[in-house]
Task: structure prediction
Amino acid sequence: QLHLVESGGGSVQPGGSLRLSCVASGFAFGSINMNWVRQPPGKGLEWVAGIAPDGIRTWYMASAEGRFTISRDNAKNTLYLELNSLKLTDTATYYCALPGVGWPDRGLGTQVTVSS
Result:
């Protein structure tokens, strides 16, 4: 059974940093593109970043380029998202997710709140 557990969220001031983690189980983690998506308050899900199985090819939404870093450790079945230079607009619940329309295969999420 597929299982994704996110952690590492919290409350930070603008300009702060956080490191999110996602531990995966129940599927061939090392063979699949993995993603981070987020849901801001009152809005729908939006894709943030993706990473190929090789851990080398990565992709980011425009507003995340240069501030966020996605990485993975296939030996530990773990996905990471380093968040730097956080802005108020980054406030959201962050989920790790497998590819799919509407991101149906995702965890319960971890809350990131950026406030001054």
In short: The mean pLDDT is 97. The longest strand covers residues 18-25. The two ends are 40 Å apart (CA to CA). Residues 14 and 21 are 21 Å apart (CA to CA).
